[in-house]
Amino acid sequence: MHWDDVRVFLAVCDKLSLATGAKEVGLDRSTASRRIAALESDLGTRLFLRTRDGLRPSPAGVRLKVHAERMADEARAFRASAEDTSKVMGLVRITTTEAMSAMLVREGLLRLRDRHPRLALELYGGNRVLDLTRGEADIALRVVKVAEPSLRVRRVAKLPFALFASESYVRQRGRPRTEADLAGHDVIAMAGELANLPESRFLESRPGITVSLRTNSMTAMLTAVQDGYGIGAITGPWGERELGLVKLLDLPNIPPRPLFLAMHPDAASRPAVRVVADAITEILSVRGTSRA
User: What's the pLDDT tens digit per position in 253-269?
Assistant: First the structure.
């Protein structure tokens, strides 16, 4: 079994297209098809199924994708360890959401400069999407998969949701343990472009709740929950790391939120951009997010 074959398998899994996956790893369609066939022969199992909706991983392919992603992470770490640190210099611009930008800073992104003092970082947090193809940023961390075929895109995490409240709120108002128990409680809901998020619609639709605040700022929502003004729907790994929050209920019926890291190939060719992208991936892994 060869790593290059696994790399092709992972690219085709991510793109759900043999031609697009082949392009992602710099191969033509026929070569990628031969690589997939060789890997299937080595493993003794079929990795993809052709359906009316297009190419889909087989049950074995779904299981193996998890391990292939870990192999890809290790390959990036292997490359980063060999990187000439003297080449890690210059400005790297990152665009993501307001809440995610605050998390990256809090979880140690700036520690990169301890190892690479000639590295400069710019972090753009907000709901406006910067255009990587026009050079507005070097790295994008997004919850919606980028459709631009010229970009390199990989899923770096999936974030499950849960309901959280502050310790002070639970002491004063009690701890709901089922969805029915939410009746009579205050909640912090989303507004504006975030109001249609599944977790926001779920929370506002609970019978008997009172909305104490609606906001289009994830940071403001989290602050209101921390200060005891109500219950909020927060991604589990994030909420569990926030001091003073109590996890009330998992929300298994809310689809986990994927996170995609995107780079333009020209930006990805710079050592500094690759180092920052690998650091972001590692931060998300340490936070306990799932790539399954």
Answer: 888 888 899 998 888 88
